[in-house]
Amino acid sequence: MSKPASLGKGLVELPDRATLRRFDQPGPRYTSYPTADRFIEAFDAEAYGRWLAEPSTGGARPLSLYVHIPFCNTVCYYCGCNKIVTKDHSKAVEYLGFLEKEIDLVAAKLSGARRVEQLHLGGGTPTYLSSEELQRVMVLLRARFAFAPRGEYSIEIDPRTAPAEKIHALASLGFNRLSIGVQDFDAQVQLAVNREQSLEVTRASIDEARAAGFESINLDLIYGLPKQTSASFSVTLDRVLELSPDRIALYHYAHLPERFKPQRRIDTEAVPSPQEKLTIMIDAIRRLCAAGYEYIGMDHFAKADDDLARAQRQGRLHRNFQGYSTRPDYDLIGLGVSAISKIGPTYAQNARALEEYYESLRGGILPTQRGIQLNADDLVRRAVIMALMCHFQVAKESIATGHLLDFDQYFASELTELEPFQEAGLVECSQDWISVTPKGKLLVRALAMVFDRHLRNDRRSRPYSKIV
């Protein structure tokens, strides 16, 4: 099976606006397949517990851990995360007590010696916790799990809650990757979304992280926020490029006030028009690529020497609930309210409401609220979708061999549905390969949706954001 022509890893070509508008549609971000909105309550704590106890295939398979810290001091109006806004710090102390109960339950059920090679603390705002409380979390985890000495250990921070001493405390706890929320440096935009964060505070966090030895620093940006213009966001990009982070995430703001209550505080009239949002996105992509950042996929960019870019070039890139991952597709244990786990061919999500999470743990029961066990069709479609999302190409023979099927026959209707994308120059289909062209990379979610059986069978409206 000959390989397709080089796709220009890290390169992206911007389609014309008419093509973007034609194929732009609401769709999943495919941090999993099936997506979390397909999970069912019939997959409960008992089912999740059985899979934790199941011996791992292929020996002692390494683990990823995700810990959800839901608390924030103030609400950012754009945010759609599962969070609890409070200045009552005693709530965090109570939460850590229940988190310890969950860690104990999971560790007791988990089979075999499973070494942790990835850890991510997300939120909410993990740095809402004090340095002592963060140390408590790490002591709890290290007492129950064996951590690899050269693992990938990351944490999301808000520079407003992460002074220099806390940055260095994080490094001493073993964290080596940092993700910093910025969104936009424009003062009017920050005021409109209730997140006032100066360039100086952000720069100080980055400088301290570098001094403390962090290996990779990511900045999160959002385009489409109220008061934002292409001119104002260009100034934000000037400042971001001066800061020179290793990675940049450029997220699209989806204004869904009917779904996310904090967004109701945003003046809808101040949100940029679809045309202006498109201009902001196009200009930003051009500038980031011109500055030497490689386009990883979706909304992620990385310097050529960053692990994320190297993983993509070497075919090791994966996606999980935290986005793109540089390590193999390990089992993932999610801890904390609303956290999602992936064990073998299953997904399991904890209760989203804090009191429901606490109630399960008071009874000594895993706080699993819903999940799903994948069938053979789910597994093959997941393999295709993740290949598209991570590598922009699918080797038909690899899928056929791994899942004992005739690819063209199994996906006959999907290949027919790809024809409009081929005609638009977004994808190339050959006897052996499906290859996303540089022009099609921005629309890869639309290509992945073609292979989503759940979407094909259920055309009801789903609360997805648009692709661009």
Task: Write the topology of this structure.
Blueprint: H1 17-23, H2 45-53, E1 63-69, E2 71-72, E3 84-85, H3 90-109, E4 115-123, H4 131-144, E5 146-157, H5 164-172, E6 177-183, H6 187-193, H7 199-211, E7 216-223, H8 230-243, E8 247-252, H9 274-290, E9 293-297, E10 300-303, H10 307-313, E11 318-320, E12 323-325, E13 331-335, E14 340-343, E15 346-350, H11 354-362, E16 368-373, H12 376-391, E17 393-395, H13 396-403, H14 407-410, H15 412-417, H16 419-423, E18 427-429, E19 433-436, H17 444-449, H18 453-457
Parallel strand pairs: 1-4, 1-13, 2-3, 4-5, 5-6, 6-7, 7-8
Antiparallel strand pairs: 8-10, 9-10, 11-12, 14-15, 15-16, 17-19, 18-19
Helix pairs in contact: 3-4, 3-11, 5-7, 8-9
Give start-end ranges of low-pLDDT stretches: none
Q: What is the 3D shape?
A: globular
Q: Kindly, what is the distance between the CA atoms of the first and last residues, rounded to a whole number of angstroms?
A: 34 Å
Number of helices: 18
Q: Helicity level, as a percent range?
A: 25-40%
Radius of gyration: 22 Å
Helix-strand makeup class: alpha/beta
Largest sheet: 9 strands, mixed
Strand line-up of the largest beta sheet? 9-10-8-7-6-5-4-1-13
Global mean pLDDT: 93
Number of strands: 19
The percentage of residues in β strands lies in 15-25%
Please, could you describe this protein's structure?
It contains 18 helices and 19 strands. The chain has 468 residues and is an alpha/beta fold. The strands form 5 sheets. The protein has a 9-stranded mixed sheet, with helices on both faces. A 3-stranded antiparallel sheet has the order 14-15-16, covered by helices on one side. Strands 17-19-18 form a 3-stranded antiparallel sheet. α3 (90-109) runs parallel beside α4, α3 crosses α11 (354-362) and α5 (164-172) packs parallel to α7 (199-211). The longest helix is centred in the first third of the chain and has 20 residues, at 90-109. The mean pLDDT is 93.
